[in-house]
Amino acid sequence: MNRSLSFTVLVVAALTACTPTPPEQQTLTNIADALGGRDRILAVHTLTLEGEGMNWNVGQDMTMDATGQTFAVTGYKRELDLDAVRMRVQQTRTPNFLYYQGQAAQTQRFGLDGDVAYSIGANDAVTRNGRSAMVDRRTEYFHHPVTLLRAALNNAATVAGPRSEGNETWLDITVPDAGTFSLAVDAQSNLPARVRSRGAHPNLGDVVIETEFSDYAEVDGLNLPQRFVTSIDRYRSTEMRLSRPTLSASAADLAAPAEARDAAAPGAPAINVVAEVVAPGVWLLAGQSHHSALIEFADHLVLVEAPQSEARTLAVIAKARELVPGKRLTQLISSHFHFDHTAGIRAAVAEGLSVITQDGNVAYVEDVIRRPHTEQPDALQRQPQPLTIEGFRDSKVLEDTTRRVELYHLSGNPHADTLLAAYLPAERVLIQVDAFSPGAPVNPYAANLLEQIRARKLQVNRIVSLHGPIVPLAELVKAVPAS
Length: 483
Ligand SMILES: [Zn+2]
Ligand SMILES: [Zn+2]
What we know:
Elements (H helix, E strand, L loop, with lengths): L1 H17 L4 H13 L2 H6 L2 E11 L13 E12 L4 E10 L10 E8 L2 E5 L5 E3 L2 H12 L2 H9 L4 E8 L2 E8 L3 E8 L5 E10 L3 E15 L2 E11 L2 E8 L3 E3 L9 H5 L11 E6 L2 E5 L5 E5 L3 E5 L5 H14 L4 E6 L5 H4 L2 H6 L3 E5 H12 L8 H4 L6 E4 L2 E5 L4 E6 L10 E5 L4 E4 L13 H10 L6 E4 L4 E3 H7 L4
Parallel strand pairs: 18-19, 19-20, 20-21, 25-26
Antiparallel strand pairs: 1-2, 1-13, 1-14, 2-3, 3-4, 4-5, 5-6, 7-8, 8-9, 9-10, 10-11, 11-12, 12-13, 15-16, 16-17, 17-18, 22-23, 23-24, 24-25, 26-27
The site of one zinc ion has 5 residues, from α8.
């Protein structure tokens, strides 16, 4: 018995000695060593990142590819609990452009505790945030070499690879419930250069979110990056420059406030479409924050705007068909490319609508319609339809025996390069959005709208704003100083 046991022990020992370390584990060890070693990485419990940087106004700038609009980020502090998936962020953002909320700096506080995402308002009021904020913050949490390495070293994640691409070695680290993070390290130094993960965006569909790491500095025996650049596909969204990160062996209390933990995660917003008659055959389809308008012609219907979400746009289309059951809804007029105003454009195309928009939006719409949405399949992904799109440069007329609609490019408007408004001369109605929002505390884009109305000699009595109530022209005049 003794003899056979020792024989077994010897055989096992020999086999163990001969078994090479799996390549993915060897790569993981190499990366851990480059950062300061497995033991040092596992000894840290709290990581605090402080610094400043900027956010780009992706999807809301003058054009989709413009990068001129930024928010300066100051007082940035991100604390990470490395034992639990907990994170808290505080930052102050100041826009460098004519922002619809005004130019004042805004302080933001938000966090993540497991699957609870929350934000804390200026008055300390805690709000539990929905699933998409939770997914975004989880991605942000794992887009750091230390959080990701710890998950892999603690066997809280599975590791696959490595593979070589150019001067980088890639390792896929899959964290249950959080997804796969592909970590690229410099093939010589083994220091992490970037991490990529996949996400689902309502407008862009399947996207790659990448954070690049650079400016490594040694902090308490660990090599840590001090510069982060995050992109969503080809659009750069954030750049942060840190002062020295700080490490602590004790755990900070980053638990979510009880109000957030006790609250149910908010579901999808309730969709309410309220039809208001603007004139015979013209309706404002209000409800929620982003509205549409419906215009009846002799043998078809035209929708203005497919905003906010697929669910809202589908509900708006259903309401249009209910209002005028005998006529086909054939065309969508899209006011400008901004993400919030085009989040339903794929749904409209899936429903068979063709698109009319200013020339500057055409390439964006074509891209949005073309992009795959496999991570979260939407109506167009499930039921592909070809896109029919018509652009115009300065103006375009839609007219039949019953109706005339004139579309005008609001050239020079500081809200977006591609903004249009729809004018109904017989009804003396102007349909627009974002150039003027009745009731808003500031209206930085309204002067251009008023100039355009005057220069084009439009006889406007009422303005239908797709963000607010129907108001007389006098409200716009009042909103423009010294007009
Ligand atoms: Zn806009
Ligand atoms: Zn808007």
